[in-house]
UniProtKB/TrEMBL annotation:
<keyword id="KW-1003">Cell membrane</keyword>
<keyword id="KW-0997">Cell inner membrane</keyword>
<dbReference type="GO" id="GO:0015528">
    <property type="term" value="F:lactose:proton symporter activity"/>
</dbReference>
<keyword id="KW-1133">Transmembrane helix</keyword>
<keyword id="KW-0812">Transmembrane</keyword>
<dbReference type="InterPro" id="IPR036259">
    <property type="entry name" value="MFS_trans_sf"/>
</dbReference>
<feature type="transmembrane region" description="Helical">
    <location>
        <begin position="135"/>
        <end position="152"/>
    </location>
</feature>
<feature type="transmembrane region" description="Helical">
    <location>
        <begin position="241"/>
        <end position="262"/>
    </location>
</feature>
<feature type="transmembrane region" description="Helical">
    <location>
        <begin position="362"/>
        <end position="382"/>
    </location>
</feature>
<feature type="domain" description="Major facilitator superfamily associated">
    <location>
        <begin position="3"/>
        <end position="355"/>
    </location>
</feature>
<dbReference type="Pfam" id="PF12832">
    <property type="entry name" value="MFS_1_like"/>
</dbReference>
<feature type="transmembrane region" description="Helical">
    <location>
        <begin position="269"/>
        <end position="291"/>
    </location>
</feature>
<feature type="transmembrane region" description="Helical">
    <location>
        <begin position="91"/>
        <end position="114"/>
    </location>
</feature>
<dbReference type="InterPro" id="IPR024989">
    <property type="entry name" value="MFS_assoc_dom"/>
</dbReference>
<protein>
    <submittedName>
        <fullName>MFS transporter</fullName>
    </submittedName>
</protein>
<feature type="transmembrane region" description="Helical">
    <location>
        <begin position="303"/>
        <end position="323"/>
    </location>
</feature>
<keyword id="KW-0472">Membrane</keyword>
């Protein structure tokens, strides 16, 4: 599992180098808030195209390791090209190609992990909990933000952060050759039918439709928030650019403890209560940010960041894995990424651009309303049946 830990470390490290700063790069190169919202929204279209295709290939006959290596080359190359562009359309196209690659990496990596976890169980070995490996992504996010602070302070150029992202993908490419091979057993799954269609039926059946709707709303909120939060700090609250990463990192420190404590919380309270509690704390976060648009609250509400990340990014992959079998273990992650994460990314970023053009404060009101709707959907429609089995894997 060490090779998987390092994959998560550098993948989320690349997120730290790109996500907080790409909107500022677009702003530097002449985009206004509406243009920036649509440009960032292109990532949503990319997510709707590549993850389901790539993970279906992994479920059918191609080696996930080779797919991962190819994606790292594509993503790193696109990010390098993006840094050389200046016009609006070249920037949008470069970001779209980058998004095509990077959005397929995470569900593919999750699928590899759950395949290895399944093999551990079949061999009678203790199964590695997902949160114990996924937390290395948070470590990577923190380390990269810290590593960026001094160079960003000295150089003062946003592009420097994205070059760190290119470096992360170069390392990920090399590390992909060290990943465990799931063996020949899963290569026989092609005869069992198209994995993507099975994944669709699972995600949108009567039992899971409200869960899928709730995640769409919550992830739309996340896309709106994460697109405009760095701009809100730098432009509205006049925070110097090199401090933006440190503010964002403050939330990831809390995130580490939330992820590591997730198994214990679920053992005590159950998956349903943990999810509802996490989304309620997210609701409080955006309520405070809307009511008090100042730097103290903008930084202080980072204390709720860990709960939000657990609800959006840690619990759902485990829950989905519990719904899958060997024939669609990768595909269910890819279809979810395509239809829920991808569409929500486009919707959230596009709307946030229009809203921010009026007033950045209204972005937090939008997030508040989306989170409240997500909480209602989960309250009425999220009742996991096999909580003990799921919590043992988280």
């Amino acid at each position: 599992m060490n090779s998987l830990k390092f994959q998560y470390f550098f993948l989320y490290g690349s997120f730290a180098a790109v996500q907080p700063f790409v909107a500022l790069l677009f702003k530097e190169r002449g985009m206004d808030e509406e243009q920036m919202g649509y440009a960032m929204g292109m990532a949503g279209w990319a997510i709707m195209l590549s993850p389901a295709v790539v993970t279906a290939l992994a479920d059918l006959h191609l080696s996930p390791r080779r797919l991962l290596a190819a994606l790292c080359l594509i993503t790193g190359g696109a990010l390098t090209a993006l840094l050389s562009f200046s016009g609006n359309w070249p920037l949008v196209i470069g970001f779209f190609v980058y998004s095509l690659g990077v959005t397929a990496v995470l569900p593919l990596l999750d699928g590899i992990f759950f395949g290895v976890q399944r093999m551990q169980g079949e061999r009678g070995e203790p199964e590695t909990h997902y949160n114990k490996v996924r937390v290395w992504g948070t470590f990577g996010y923190m380390v990269l933000l810290l590593a960026l602070f001094y160079p960003m302070e000295r150089v003062g150029e946003v592009a420097l952060a994205l070059w760190f992202g290119v470096g992360c993908f170069a390392i990920l490419f090399l590390l992909s050759f060290l990943l465990p091979d799931r063996g020949r057993r899963e290569a026989k799954k092609a005869a069992e039918g198209l994995p993507t269609s099975k994944a669709l039926l699972v995600l949108f059946n009567r039992e899971n439709i409200l869960f899928s709707a709730a995640m769409f709303l919550l992830l739309s909120c996340s896309a709106a928030y994460h697109t405009m939060y760095p701009v809100f700090l730098a432009e509205d609250l006049e925070l110097e650019t090199h401090w933006v990463g440190i503010v964002i990192m403050s939330g990831t420190i809390i995130e580490v403890f939330c992820i590591l404590g997730l198994t214990r919380l679920e053992d005590r309270w159950g998956l349903r209560v943990v999810m509802l509690g996490a989304i309620f704390l997210t609701l409080v976060r955006f309520g405070l940010m809307y009511a008090y648009p100042n730097l103290t609250v903008a930084v202080g509400t980072q204390v709720f960041h860990g709960a939000m990340i657990c609800a959006m990014l840690v619990v759902p992959p485990n829950y989905l894995n519990g719904l899958a079998d060997d024939s669609n273990r990768n595909s269910i992650q890819g279809v979810y990424t395509m239809l829920i994460i991808g569409l929500s990314k486009f919707v959230g970023t596009a709307i946030s651009g229009h809203v921010a053009a009026v007033d950045q404060r209204y972005v937090h009101l939008l997030c508040l309303l989306l989170t409240a709707a997500s909480l209602v959907c989960l309250w009425y429609g999220f009742r996991p049946r096999q909580e003990s089995d799921l919590s043992s894997r988280i």
